[in-house]
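BUG: 3D viewer hangs when loading the predicted structure for this chain

Environment: internal workstation, default settings.
Expected: structure renders.
Actual: progress bar stalls at 90%.

Input used:
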Amino acid sequence: MSSTSNIVVCVRRAALHSDAGTEMCEHKGVGHPDTLCDNAVEAAARSLSRAYLADYGAVQHFNLDKALLIGGLSAPKFRGGRLLRPMRLIVSGPVAELASQSAEAIIQEAIYAHLKGTLDVDSSMIAVEPAVRASAPSLRRVNGPAAMPLANDTSFGVGYAPLSCLEQQVKAASDILNSDDLRAAFPAIGRDYKIMGHRVGDRIALTLAAAFIDRGVGDVADYFDLKAGVAQRVGEGVRQACTLRINTLDDLGAHDESGLYLTVTGLSAEQGDDGEVGRGNRVNGLITPYRPMSLEAAAGKNPAAHVGKLYNVLAHQLAQRILNDVDGVVEVTVRLLSAIGQPIDQPQLAAVDVCAPDGLSPAQRRGIEERIEQGLAELPALTRQLVNGEIRIW
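Structure tokens produced before the viewer hung:
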């Protein structure tokens, strides 16, 4: 172990994760109720940040990381059903006042634009209800005039590299399900999907749940044909051979819509499936019970001062940077711990665990420390990327 100030580097020679006999990994797609909540509040956070920059020249104190999606009621039918009761999205959090416009209006406008552009749903299908209030005076100074904002929480972020083979497979399957090519070939596939992967030894299996849109499905036989086609396309596109199953709850003897995963909007939330911020993917797009994770909800958090967002994104970036740049390193985990009221570039602890079978030289250790220092110094640039939507956190 070596340490410089608050940066501590620990080295082991044996890999831990890659040698594990079993593994599980999950991804919730863009229309999944939890991901819907995450992306909605993140869209609102970006718009609110831009409004603060326009009014004050700096992002002010706010957090929109609490939201609840209340499911609706629908009656799917082959070739087109009806939405009987719309969904509701309640967004809560403290916000500093704006000089030019209402924060509630910005939040609603941003979320409706996101829902329409990403999921093709409008205000008649999901009602957005902001429930925001003034932020605490003691927290407003964290977004003050200083060049480096102060941490508005004592919290930690964690990231790792590289992705395992299973994690890559799950992300590849998600990319296929969300691709324009697949959706052009199968317009009946909805935006709500989930992928659960597991590995035993070298054997990988993926279980998919994917909502189908009723107006694009003619009958039971058509549904099963479409489902088989989607499964084939995903199976052909992933990087390694695996066992793949899709919509395993379907009634193979179904005679009507009731035994199939059919929806009106392509969202399970229309049929009562609720969602909440922070219950879905971590910032690398995965849920990984075999990996170190933070339970922080990064989505909707302040991109300038909330380390629950910044440190989780930065930790993954730093882990990948160290893996790429430092010879002999095969696995990296980075953990960053803040102290409320301290500059965000001065964590209480930056702990780096690396697997290097041949050990590390003093120069290699210093290279790791320099990359941590550089990443912390560049946090304002990371804030700008988050405000501009250049970094995906789901």
